[in-house]
Amino acid sequence: AQTVTQSQPEMSVQEAETVTLSCTYDTSENNYYLFWYKQPPSRQMILVIRQEAYKQQNATENRFSVNFQKAAKSFSLKISDSQLGDTAMYFCAFKDNNDMRFGAGTRLTVKP
Amino acid sequence: DGGITQSPKYLFRKEGQNVTLSCEQNLNHDAMYWYRQDPGQGLRLIYYSQIVNDFQKGDIAEGYSVSREKKESFPLTVTSAQKNPTAFYLCASSIYGRNANYGYTFGSGTRLTVV
Asked: How far apart are the CA of B43 and the nearest CA of chain A, in angstroms?
C-alpha cells in the first residue's frame, strides 16, 4: 500500500516569513495526484493545493506553492508571507485509483 | 450553500452502547467516505461508498457499520465491538467515484468520547 510520510510533527514561523513543509510518499504507480489539506482549530479540512503527477510544472495557489520532485517522490509545501490564519495542521495526501492516503500531519504555528 | 453536514459535533457514549454519527451532503457527489483521526496518525479510512446501497470496508472497519440508502446520506454506527472508539470522525465526499483523482470535500467532524 502507498505510504505518505511527513517528518516534521511541528513547525513554527514568524509572521510574514516563508516556511516549507515536507512530504514524501512511496508508490509504484506512475499516474497519481497529490494534495495538501489544511485543518485549522475548527477542524474543518480545507483543500489547499493539488498536483497532478504527470504535470512537471509545480502547482501554485496564491501564497501556497509546491515543490514536486517525482523521481525523489517528494512533495513539499511552501507558504510565503505567512499569516496568523495559516496556523493549522497540514496534511499531505496521495491518491491514485484507490483510496486517498494521508500523512500524520505537521502542526504549523505562525507567531506574531 | 453546498457542503457536508456532520452531526452532532460532540458525542458521548457509554461503554457497551452503539452510537450513530450522521453525515449528509447536498453536493450531488457520488462517493462518500468515513475517516477516523487520532493524534499523530493522520486520517485512516473506515468505510467508503461509491453508489447507493453499496459500500466497502476501509483499513479499520472492525467495530463499525454503515449504510447508504440515499445518495445524500452516509451514517456511521460505532458499535460496542469497537474497543477504542474515542476519536475524531470525519466524513468526506467526492464528485466521482473512488477511482477518480479529485480532491475530497470534508465535513466539520464529530468528536466521539467514551465515558
From this structure: 6
How far apart CA B96 and CA A44 sit, in angstroms, is 21
Contact B43 A91 (CB under 8 A): yes
**Which of A81, A94, A68, A76 has the alpha carbon at shortest distance from A7?**
A76
CA distance A84 to A110: 5
| Residue A31 clears pLDDT 90, i.e. is over it | no
DSSP per residue over A11-72, as a string?
A: EEEETT--EEE--EEE-S-SS-EEEEEEE-TT---EEEEEEETT--SPPEETTEEEEEETTT
Q: Which of A32, A44, A47 sits opposite B103 (nearest CB)?
A: A47
Of the candidates A79, A108, A76, A107, the one whose C-alpha atom is nearest the C-alpha of residue A92 is A76
Q: How far apart are CA B40 and CA B51, in angstroms?
A: 32
> Rounded to an integer, what distance in angstroms lies between the CA atom of residue A75 and that of residue B85?
32
CA distance B92 to chain A (A): 9
pLDDT tens-digit readout, B17-73: 999 999 999 999 999 999 999 987 889 999 999 999 999 999 999 999 999 999 999
How much is the pLDDT for B98? Answer: 59
